[in-house]
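Q&A log
Question type: sequence-to-structure
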Amino acid sequence: MKTPDDPTQNDNVVDLFSGKSLTDLKDLRFVRLAPELDGLEMLYSNDISDGKLFSLQVLCWGLRANGEVVGLVPWLNQLIACTDICDPLNGQWEGYYDPGIDDIFDDAPIHKIAELETAAEYYEYHSDNPDDIIQEIPDTIGTHAILSDDGFQSVTLVEIISWRLFNDGRMEGMLADQEKVISTPVLPGDDCLYSANNHSKFKYFFQHHIANKIKSKDPEAIAAISLLADDEPTE
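Response status: OK
Response body:
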């Protein structure tokens, strides 16, 4: 008789949203993060770019339970592995880029792999509570959350202070509740922080250069917001 913990049984149970087995999902969860501090970027393209490549700063590198190390970027409404971005319209991953030496590469840097593996071994954590916070890192790339409840007719941009990694592998961007701020600057781990996902008006994440264009009402940025509004599901 098989027990619920039998891995072969989990192989036969499929998540409806991802299409992956529970075993695969467990192997793909993130167990450790390392901030990117040298300006490395992700390259991506889309079907309307006519061969042109675009770049985003890598926020951090993540170690999966299966040992794989990948770069992570805020993408639409989540923090996602660069290699998982595969959307013909919004973008698809093309590689990593080091602007300092003009080098394009496909695998995580060796020094980040070593850092993550060493840290994961040193800070090995065991818990059955999926909501336990495993790690919290500062946002170093100026990520903003865009808030709106009127179809983007008006928007509010709020800085992301940090990113939390939970025991079940999910990662959430943290906002500061200004009514609960006691000391400044607000740092990771502060009691005033709460998840952007828990804000009723939260829509998307943007890196600082796009957020600043939106603040200055740049025509291209406003047009991009309009496209996102068109993609919003109607109730």
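Response note: Residues 128-235 form one domain.
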